[in-house]
Amino acid sequence: MKALRTIKPGGKFAYGGVNWQVLEQEAGRALCLAAESIGNKAFDKENHNDWRESSLREYLNGEFLESLTENGASEDAIHQTKFDLVSEDGLNDYGISIDRVGLLSCNQYRKFRKLISPVNGWWWTITPYSTIASYACDVRIVISDGTLYNGNAYYGSSGVRPLCNFDSSILVSFDGEDGEDQEEKGTIRGITIEIGADTSGLDDAIEKAERLKSLLQEANDLIGSLKSAT
Q1: How much is the pTM?
Q2: Do both 62 and 142 map to the same domain?
Q3: Which of 62, 88, 173, 218 could form a disulfide bond with 14, CB atoms 3.0-4.6 angstroms apart?
Q4: Pick from 124, 123, 100: which is nearest to 16 by CA?
């Protein structure tokens, strides 16, 4: 376990029964995206692209949030976040939404794309294609090759990658392979080892070193005796 604030952007950790990836650390908060899809769901069962009224918003801030707390997450550590609902064509009719759990916007996807781990399958963003009536069912999605595309809000075959702002002071289980700063190390007799690494050969090495030390001492004693004899 370690403090979330010590994990660099791109690093992964587990919290509340979900694997997350850090996108940004700022002002005591860590913006984190689910490292994988938590399953396929419709953006909105009524086929509307307004996040504020969507069935997915209701699920993520209800049943999903409850599952996080049931698996050890603190609701107080999941900060209320302002989600920008500007459409892909630049209309801001939907304004903003304030939630504990949301989705990545297209603008955020572009900003953090190099950090985000790809997944097999398509997944929702929070961004509507347009607020114009003739496009009011279209939501931007990320497809398997990382391209942004459109999907009808009622499609139940797109994945969900929740986005949360966690308090960066919380303790989390981390993936030690993501960055050398995330490896815990210790030093024994000048030898640096990773905690949890296989140290089965370490005792043998120490024993051999002790034997060598003893042989060197015997050699020094013998040299001293020879010098005295002459």
Answers
A1: 0.76
A2: yes
A3: 173
A4: 100
